[in-house]
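Why DNA-binding Lrp family transcriptional regulator? Reviewers of the renewal asked for a concrete example.
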Amino acid sequence: MDPVTLDDLDRQLLHALQVDGRAPFSQIAGVLGVADRTVARRYARLSALGAVRVLGFPDGRRTGHAEWFVRLRCLPDAARAVGAALARRPDTSWVTLLSGGSEISCLVRTAERSGDGPVLLERLTRTPRVVSVGAQRVLRDFSDHESGWRARASALTREQAAALRPSYGGAVAWDGLTDLDRRLLPALAVDGRTSCASLAQAVGWSESVVRRRLTELRRTRALLFSVETDPRLFGYTTECMMWLTVSPGRVPEVAEALSGDVEIAFVAAMTGQANVLAYVVCRDIDALYDYLTGRVGALPGVQRLESVPVTGYAKRMAVPKE
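Here is what the prediction returned.
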């Protein structure tokens, strides 16, 4: 397989897809001032090389899905097998290997309107090679979903981003998930750019109905999109999970401050003693040290910081392709 390198047009394309994951290539091409087929070829190449995937996922606050961060410790020789098993599940994302491979962390989405913790925990506690399991409920996601990880979303001008941003008017009342939504969401979690024709065939509904429902899901902000890429393509080689214990009254202030940093790919308020969780991406280990000590450590209200290096992935967000 050819090594992947990104030029300016590739970076603009990835930024454009973060602004609108389902933007037509013709629209992106018009904003970037290139031919439609040039954009389509670039995306096809990056996708074939595994350098980019566009993923659709529900906004839990709209759809009622609960999100939990699960952290488990395994026997050293079991982590990769456990991680691979977790990665195959449709209800998990961000299955990361931590601390040299002895720990795993993953995000688990439970069914809508479920007040219970993830059923997955019961199975994990009965797995002989899993030493310990803990779970924290996501209370509020402070991430900027339009920008995502900001180092990847810096190639377009403000005017270009504005031209690509979907315009659905003001806030719209949410009418709840339908049977069609429950069929569409798993397909979009694998490939957020799947055509309406392919989606219609997969879910057994007409293309016109699928198209209208997708528009409604986006208009109500129930469906979000993210671009999955490897930070190393942008020159960022060091990643870690960060758990912060923050004074309760300072949680919104700290989380919002972090959400604007180029080093942050995800940040949320959580249950538990460590009540803010963040995913940190830095250029190298020295940059990570400077960020943790100079930026995070100086934020008012931060009482304790635990950082754990990410040493590998079983899954970023999407179900791994076979």
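The domain at 234-311 is CATH 3.30.70.920 (Alpha-Beta Plaits). This is the kind of structural detail the renewal will allow us to pursue systematically.
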